[in-house]
Structure formats: structure tokens, C-alpha cells
Design a protein that fits this description.
The structure is a homodimer. By secondary structure, chain A is mainly alpha-helical. Chain A has one domain: Up-down Bundle (Methane Monooxygenase Hydroxylase, Chain G, domain 1). Helix content of chain A is about 85%, strand content about 0%. Chain A contains seven helices and no strands. The radius of gyration of chain A is 20 Å and the shape is elongated. The termini of chain A are far apart. The model of chain A is unreliable at about 230-235 (pLDDT under 50). At the A-B interface, helix 3, helix 4, helix 6 and helix 7 of A face helix 3, helix 4, helix 6 and helix 7 of B.
Chain lengths: ~240, ~240
Amino acid sequence: MEASDLTGHISRRFNKDLEDLRSAVLSMGGVVETQLSRAIDAIVRGDSALGLKVAGDDYKVNNLEVSIDEECSRILATRAPAASDLRLIVAIIKTITDLERVGDEAEKIGFLASKLAQMDRPTDSYRELNNLGSHVSHMLRDAMNAFARLDVDEALAVIEEDEHVDEEYETISRQCITFMMEDPRTIKRVMNVTWAARSLERIGDHAKNICEYVVYMAQGRDVRHTHAPEEAESTDN
Amino acid sequence: MEASDLTGHISRRFNKDLEDLRSAVLSMGGVVETQLSRAIDAIVRGDSALGLKVAGDDYKVNNLEVSIDEECSRILATRAPAASDLRLIVAIIKTITDLERVGDEAEKIGFLASKLAQMDRPTDSYRELNNLGSHVSHMLRDAMNAFARLDVDEALAVIEEDEHVDEEYETISRQCITFMMEDPRTIKRVMNVTWAARSLERIGDHAKNICEYVVYMAQGRDVRHTHAPEEAESTDN
């Protein structure tokens, strides 16, 4: 084999490694999206068994994180990638941490669904949670699409969308306080609704984080924390 | 300059880069610890201005994260570190993400302190929040010490300690529900207490995460997600 063939061979192997890594992240994203959509279904349908199944399946997400993480370290150590390849790997290391935490929130929502299934059910089948859940599911899917296509415009759109999710969460959270004040017998149940809404809001934050890494990957530009300090706002109420 | 001198020179420069990076992480840890301790003080003393100051200072933590992150990428790109040096840098990239999120929780606690300062105050000056706050502050300090000394035993102790923090949080969370049921007029105020307790519990999680990276750095062993799936438990109630 001549030197140039060898170089070409190594470079093709390297590209294949990176391609496999990207596919693994997308497939982890798919698993997490399924977990989230089942967790929301479990709440809406009052399906306790489904909620517990989601919670019990979280280890699958964790295992994916560990194996992708190991592969990133292996590539960093053996290939010493530079420039955009290096940015890709750093972004993947961060992205899978956020995906794993989306998995944790889906696990929590699964447990909450199981509890809510055993309590009085409102006639609207938790429509607000369903709406917020659809909203953040879309954000997560768009974030993974932006990751797959390295689409900066889509990533920036998701980052903006997170503000609407925050507003929707604030509205639900205020409604929950009103319900509890009007009928204190609902407090235990409504607290579970509050926690589920909070978990969904967090998932929106993670989707936003992933999109910030996409911009960093594509442009080498860090768009995190670009708000001036005086614009800082609480997301709590 | 002879080749061996040059190698020695590069190696000394590299070690100095890594040492500076470690110091920067420890100093970021110090800033975050201060933010947390002020946020807790603001709750206990009912000091609205201090709470808002903590919230307003969060940008300092964010700026530290961005600059350390850039330095990690620079070292990865220019030095192509291997083995334990590579593990150090990967662990730092993750650690500063957790520290930044501890900063976010301190920011939230600052805002909550400011709201609580303007409401009726319990005679015990939020003793439970103070206790939980001291507990997680210790965890965070121990985590940063474990990081500084690469002390696996201390890291494992912090990881264990997180279970006690979770129990303490559960107790506070249950108490809050009882208070609200007994006196629905307290609901708005007590919800703020619940959110503050939740933020403190999250900080415990982040300290635990940092300790998991310390073990990975020291041993190249990933101790995350070592619980069997059947042991999975909700941290909500």
C-alpha cells in the first residue's frame, strides 16, 4: 500500500467513525423522543402501567450515553481530531448529557403519570400537560433534526421557541396554584401536575441547549449566555 | 535548542496549561459556592436585595464557563492530549456544565428569596431550607475538594451523601404539602419554599455528577448509572 493510499484509508476510517457517532446520537435521540411521548401518553390516558414502563426503561437511555461517551473519548485519543471534527465531538459529549437528562425527566413524568392515574381525573384529561408535552416534543424533534442536518437556522428557531414553552409553563403553574387555593383537597394531585409541567419545561431547556451546541458545531460560535445581565429573568413564579 | 530541550519545554508548557485549567475550574467552583451561600443567606435573613444581587451576578458564572470551555477546546486542538490528560479535559468540560447549572439554581433561589422576603415570615426563618442549604453547600465544597485532589474516596462519599439530601428534600416537600392543606392561604408562599427546596436538591445532584467525573478522571471508570433498573426510584412525591 502506498503512503497516499494509507492516508486515504485512515481518513475514510475516521470519517466513518464520525458518521457512526452521529448516527448513534440520532438513534439515542429517537429513544429519548419515544420515552417522552410515552410518558405524555401515560398521563393523558391515565395509564399507570405505561408510566412505570417508561420509568423502568430509563436505563436504556443511560447505557446509550455511556457507550457514546466512551466512543467519543476513544476517537479523541486515537484520532486527535482538529477544527470542525473536534467541535463535533465536543458538541456530542454535551448533547448526550442533555439527552440523558431528558430521559431522566421522562422517567419522572412516568412515575408522576402512574400516581395521577390512581387519583381523580379531570374531565379534560390533562389537556394543558398534553399541549405543553406536544410543544416540547416538537422542540426536541426539531433540535435533533437541526443536529442531523447541522441546520443553524432551525437551531436558532428552537432556541427562540423555548421562551414560548417557558410562558406556557408559567401559565400552567399559576393555574395550579389557583386550583389548589380554590379547592385544597386537590393539593396532592395538583402538585403532581405541577411537577410534570416543570419536567416538561426542563426538557425544553435541554432541547435549547442541544441547539446551542449545533450553532457552536456549525460556526464555532458560542451562543450561550448571550443575554445581558439586566435581561436576566426568573423562570419561577 | 536541542530536540530533548524542546520536548521538555513543550511538555512543561502543556503541564502548565493543564494546571491553569484546573485552577480556573476551582476558582469557578469558588464563585458558584459564594453564589449559593449568598442565596441561602438571602432566604434566611429575608434579604430581598441580596437575593436579587445573586440573581444579577449569575452572568459571572456563565462567562467563566464559556472561557474555560474555549480553553479546553484550544488544548484539545493544539496538544492532542492522551490517556489521563484527555480524561481530565473531558471531565472538566462536563464539570463546568454542572457548575454553570448550580449557578442557574442559585439564581433561581435568589429570585425566590426576594419574593419570600416580601411575604409573611415563619418564626423559624426557614430553618429546613437553611439545613438543606448547608447540606448541599458542604456536598458542593467536598465535590470541589475531591476534584482538586483527585480524591476518589471523597468523591464516592459525596455520591453516597446525595441519597440523604434526596430524603431531606422529600421530607420538606411533604411538609410543604401538609402546610398548604392545613392553611390554603399559605399556598403561594409555600410554593416558593417548595421551589427553593427543589433547586437545592438539584444542586446536590450536580455535586454528585461532578464526583462521578472525578472517579472517571482518576480511574478511567464510569460510575454513572450503576444502579440496576429495578432499583430505579422516583425522586418526586
